[in-house]
Amino acid sequence: MAVGLDLLPRYLDPLPGGKGVVSAVDVIVNWARAHSLWPLVYGTSCCAIEMMATGAARHDIARFGAEVFRASPRQADLIILAGTLTEKMADHLVTLYQQMPDPKWVIAMGACTISGGPFYYDSYSVVRGADRVVPVDVYLPGCPPRPEALLHALTELQQVIKGETIRNRRASKELTTAPPVDRMAVDLAAWEEEQDEHIAEVEANKAAWKEANPDFQAYKHPKLDKPKLEAVERVKTPRRGALPSALWAAVAERFDGLSLATCDEVTEDALAAMDADSEAILDLVIDPERYAALVGFLRGNEATGCDMLHQLTAFDDGEQISVLVHLLSVSQGHKVFVRCALEREAPTLPSLSGLFPAATWHERETAEMFGVVFAGHPDPRRLFVAEGLKGYPLRKDWSDPSRVVAREL
Amino acid sequence: MEREQHIEVRPPSAGGNTEEYWLNMGPQHPATHGVLHLIVRLDGETVREVKPELGYIHRSVEKMAENLTLLQNIHLTDRLDYLSCHMNNHAVCMVAEQACDIGVPERAEYIRVIVSELQRIQSHLLWWGAFAMDIGALSAFLYGFAEREKITDIFERLCGARLTMNYFRPGGVAQDLYDGFEQDARQACSDILYALDEYQRLVTGNLIFQERTRGVGILSRDKAIGYGCSGGTARASGLDYDVRRDDPYGIYDRFSFDVPVATAGDCYARYEVRMEEMRQSVQIIEQALKDLPVGPIQAKAKPVLKIPKGLQVFRQVETARGSFAMTAIGDGTATPLRVSYRSPGFMHVAALHEMSAGFKIADLITILGSLDPVIPDIDR
Amino acid sequence: MSNPRDILGPQRFSQSHAAPKLIPPNASVTKRYFIRVVTGVTSLLTGMRVTIGKFFDPRTTVTQQYPENRDELKMAERFRGRVVMPHDADGEHNCTGCTLCEKACPNGSISVLNTKHASGRKILGKYIYRLDSCTLCNLCIEACPFGAIEMGTEFELATTRKEGLVEILNKKAGRL
Description:
The structure holds three protein chains of three kinds. By secondary structure, chain A is of the alpha/beta class. Chain A has eleven helices and eleven strands. By secondary structure, chain C is an alpha+beta fold. Chain C has a three-stranded antiparallel β-sheet, with no helix packed on it. A two-stranded antiparallel ribbon of chain C has the order 1-4. In chain C, a hairpin with a 5-residue loop joins strand 2 and strand 3.
């Protein structure tokens, strides 16, 4: 169809009145295209909910002829890029775009797809603007934009389509290729350069100006009348389950040399203080050798009874990598934390996936983000980041200027 | 059904004249609720193994959080589980409040509960529509959204945004209720109750729906605990745990509400539990509206919220999907040393394989829909 | 091994609402078949009664006619559409260039660039607002002590020009 239309001007233009026919065909074709856009079902995050809301009864995108959300790119001619585009997804988006038949259009919905939005700075996995990957026709700012705003973007796109002609098909929009920069620093540097002369001049003539205008009074900006806030005493949330001292007693009986992360020395007073504080949680520090044994004991022992692994993660304090395990007793309600400090070079721990299936994915994530090796893990693959990311992003000494835009200001 | 926990990548040769094959579902698939990639091993149409592949919307929120203050972190948690953003905000605010010893005025506590429960209903309505659409009932999607828009309108008038509200602040909430909020909320509650009865007739009672969901995707109680499932998914498997009741935060211990628990552990049980949760949320809202005190909505807090060096602060909340937890470790500066989010859907998708092996591939869609996953929450 | 798809499985949820009557577990194949046909059709009709009722009831119409209703469409007072800087009749604004909003912004959407007046006083030179990355989180407005910026309720911001999304909000330099 498109190929045939492209040939029309070549044959009709030389004929008398042929140009008028081509224009008429233009109008009809563009009208048809603009009012029967078939969007692809493509939504990655928050904006997708607003896109769904636009398709639902209240806003009813069917009034614009665009309700036929197609699951296959081969039947669609519009992508509404609803949601953040990550580097792992970018390849797939290009594939989808290439599978769509011409002519095709793209609406970049939301801040993430225009520039990376909230993930512009410090993120290691987000593409800063979908127009680095596919050509975008209409940009729709907002986070997320209202459904009406999406409908407005659709009408804007219809205007774009109606301006097209088969005579010279619109050249595809160009992709952005310039690498993302720290925009705040760039703008500031440009501004300072621009202002250098002016400021030097001001500095030089300041005294003279003050002499010439002796009664100059600076304008005092009126402050907003904001309500004065009162401090409120904090009410602690009540405790559920066993007291920390009881849990400590059960654990200390079996393991010696344990310590707590919250106090330097475990004394009667320290335990009593923890019992009195309803928000205090037992935070055990264990060496790597007895780590699995301790978690197994906490799970199996009746007094502790921690039957659920709530979370397993780690943190890097700049010197050591500490693995954190959050255990929860569903039946009693208390929580116990276990932490285990590891050396930065080749940190290794036994895997907990035999005790808790939940640990399998948490350990994969921790291995990927911190480089902790979990010995005996059944499925030691990457979990989140696409292949090609070097190092362990959540470590403090990790940096990769090709992926991360650091904010200096 | 006895199976090995982790099946090796090479499929064992299947008996008979069928041959097992691998199928990629997603990341761009309308039924995966976003960009989830499921690698499915099939025998004919029967699912043998499901390997979820994550990370297509991994936005490095935890890394970014290390360079943002706690106040700035609130708006990022809006974008994790965007259908439970008030509850996510609540977790961040409670971490800040516990770390810096900030109290919350009574009125703000009540407002927090009311908007959280409204959002739970809103999220469940969306889930209901999407779940029914997964099974093939397109009209349910339209009904769910029409009802949801009423709550969205309230949020828009209250917070200024429809989806990513950024409404809670350490020490209270950002803005006071607008005039007429209570009336709007009551109206929304009664509309929801009416609509829920309508939904029962529209979808719940339908034989096709029943047959597609009953006995499908069974998750046993042991498995639910083992995989760390929470929320409606765990309660449908007989795990009687609700953070609002069993690890109370805010003022949830002042309200009387039931925690619906089912024992079947199938998709229909998850459906019923969530439908009942909406009714319970309405009850909580009504109680909270009745007792809503007047007074300030925000307490005085330090201008810069610092978590003391080495302190680990952990708070969990019950979002529409389950237990969302935030752990922050301080280094004594305005930005935390490490922030970690525990998302409920992460564990539910991890358990997906346990639920779907042995069922048909069409059931896999049903099972995934019944888990109510929000992929950005899982990937973070 | 029992068939996992058996709809006769026990349903022990206590507060079951409108669940249809289950087929008796000991029913014969024929009985089962007929019960299913009847239940299927009746449950379908029950559902369709809801939709048909909505179809003929004009009170249940929820569709809003955007863009035809553009004149009546009023955004909520607190609606956050974009950041604006109100100017008074003389074209003056209230910004002092204190950069509190710039520091409050979580994603660097604001750059406050200052200049100097002839008296040596620091005043606002250029207020860059990047709508393309703004998440409308309201933190800048809460941070501003002078009410110099506000959230506008404009929402029809779609454009074909990306460059147009980075704007300079102030019309002239700061007041003395």
